[in-house]
Write a structure and sequence with these properties.
It holds the Pfam family TctC. It contains 11 helices and 11 strands. By secondary structure, it is of the alpha/beta class.
Amino acid sequence: MNFRLFSCAAALSACALLTSAPAQAQTFPPEKPISLIVGFVPGGAADAAARMIATKLSENIGKTIVVQNKPGAGGNIAHQWVANADSDGSVLLFGSVGPLTIAPHMMKLNYDPFKDLAAVSGGVHFPNILVVHKGVGVKTLAEFVDLSRKKPGSVDFASTGTGSASHLAGELLNQRAGIDMVHVPYKGGGQAMQDLLGGRVASYFSAPPTAMQHILAGNLIPLATTGLERPSFLPADIPTVAESGYPGFEALNWYAFVAPGATPEPILDRWNEEIVKVLNDEEIKKALNEHGLAPQPTTRAGLTEFMQKESKQWAEIIRERNLADK
């Protein structure tokens, strides 16, 4: 082969490699091990939901999906890690309302939720429930608010981290009720609940799955839920904050599936298809409902629109409450 023919052959081979690379990168399911990242410690609502969904996803695609917990900073550590992770479809994040739509308005982050992360599908949503340790001595939201007014700065509330849904629910109650509860952030629902049960904090806007067993055992007193309607999976006598004197009060907790921002569109579409299929599965819906979680399957565009709406809402509260870092 002369030099010119050799050069042409080499060029054609190079082109073939270049054109085949995207096709290989878009293989589904990905050839690499698949990880579903959760930004909180094991034991909370996010972890429970993620593991249920990951198990069914693994069955459907014929490949194990490993749930990895990366707690810290209200979930921001996990979100930043995924924003910088491989974008070949092997990494998914069970993202949450805090890091995706609250934290960006409170602090400087090293990622942009709408640029560095790609929407895949909604996951689950639920209201939080305000619970207090039985030793606090209150049984209604009105009594709790009165106690907070009589002892400003001494009544505290736990959360799953600064900028989390449970944090903003407390700040919203501070704003609406004119009280001054002290925020105590934790790395996840499990740790927050442990200190609440131990009487080391007075209250917690908890995920229902985390709180219900302790409510039924009589160790915690439920005061109100943070949705606009009483959820069917909770005792019917627990009112909402909205109907307890604060009309329009709503602070939902939700988790959604996102991926590294540069993940190829075909891979994102396939993940959306598979996740929506799982969330519409009757057994999964029943299992999630039993844990107080409502499935929230969406299109990719639908999740982006939902996130934009939530981001606008919480930006206004953060500005009004002067919560952003200086």
